[in-house]
UniProtKB/TrEMBL annotation:
Domain LysR substrate-binding residues, every copy: 131-274
Keyword Thylakoid appears in the UniProt entry: no
Pfam families: HTH_1, LysR_substrate
Protein name in the entry: LysR family transcriptional regulator
Chain ranges of the HTH lysR-type domain: 9-65
Gene3D superfamilies assigned to the protein according to its UniProt record, in alphabetical order: Periplasmic binding protein-like II (3.40.190.10), Winged helix-like DNA-binding domain superfamily/Winged helix DNA-binding domain (1.10.10.10)
InterPro entries: LysR_HTH_N (IPR000847), LysR_subst-bd (IPR005119), WH-like_DNA-bd_sf (IPR036388), WH_DNA-bd_sf (IPR036390)
Protein family: Belongs to the LysR transcriptional regulatory family.
Record bears the keyword DNA-binding: yes
Keywords, comma-separated and alphabetical: DNA-binding, Transcription, Transcription regulation
């Protein structure tokens, strides 16, 4: 049997780690047919299937699991060879932060990580499917990634710090029925309050739309509306107060770190999690 080439193996590792042919193509900056052809070539050379296709993505066969265990250390070692041979080697760490997660709780752990691992070159990306580490709620973790939970939280109402309701202990939907809303269309939980209000015959909310939660807090502080946000956002903006909301179904989420199934990503996620919990 001929020696297996490193490029098809690299495409195979990416497909295994991301759980998707299309995402493997994105990670390697090649076309999807190129990845599919490379995996098919490996399957012919090895005499068996490496993946089974399902609606949820790729399912690795026993042969695929064995190939990953055997090939991953060598391919990773060779792929990083040019970086290690440079006078000051740096290793990219691609980080994604979902729009409904604030980066501030991760800032100190990231700073500690960079001081400790000076070989890392962190960079933020705008696509979860190509990152190494993602700061996300569990329901938003990219397909094929492992998830390390950090905390669980509920939701409340974000109001300007000087708002007449900012000092209230808890709020009811009726208290905020006339307030304009800052829409958070990227959040899976965003429609819960709207559904409750609609069921009570309240008028639909109106107001600005945001692209991430940091912008939400800025818009709330500017007096352009209120928003349903995670309770841990309290204290993250000096111009915003967050108050619990009663008489609505309880909504909760688990926030943590999603990471690609690579040795580096797993190690970094564990280090960041340990720092974040201290």
């Amino acid at each position: 049997m001929a020696m297996l080439e490193i490029t098809p193996l690299r495409y195979f590792l990416s497909a295994y780690e991301t759980g998707s042919i299309s995402r493997a193509a994105q990670v390697n900056a090649v076309s999807q047919p190129s990845v599919s052809a490379a995996i098919q070539r490996l399957e012919r050379e090895l005499g068996g299937s490496l993946f089974l296709r399902s609606r949820r993505g790729l399912v690795t066969t026993p042969l695929g699991e064995q190939l990953y265990r055997e090939a991953a250390p060598s391919v990773t070692h060779l792929a990083d060879l040019s970086t290690r041979l440079r006078p000051h080697p740096r290793q990219r760490l691609r980080i994604y932060c979902h729009p409904d997660v604030l980066l501030s709780p991760f800032s100190v752990p990231l700073q500690a990580l960079v001081r400790r691992r000076q070989e890392l070159l962190p960079e933020f990306c705008d696509q979860a499917e190509v990152c190494d580490i993602a700061c996300v709620a569990e329901s938003c973790a990219p397909s094929g990634y492992a998830f390390l939970p950090l905390w669980e939280e509920g939701y409340g109402v974000a109001l300007p710090a000087g708002h007449r309701l900012a000092q209230a202990g808890v709020l009811r939907p009726e208290d905020i029925a006339a307030e304009p809303r800052i829409h958070r269309p990227y959040c899976p939980k965003a429609d819960v309050l709207h559904e409750v209000e609609a069921g009570r015959g309240m008028p639909p909310p109106h107001g600005a739309a945001a692209v991430n939660d940091q912008q939400v807090l800025d818009l709330v502080a500017a007096g352009l509306g209120i928003a349903l946000v995670p309770l841990r956002h309290a204290g993250c903006h000096p111009g915003v107060a967050v108050r619990p909301l009663t008489e609505v179904p309880e909504v909760r989420r688990t926030v943590g770190l999603a990471y690609r199934k690579t040795v580096l990503a797993r190690e970094i996620a564990a280090e960041l999690a340990a720092e974040a919990k201290e």
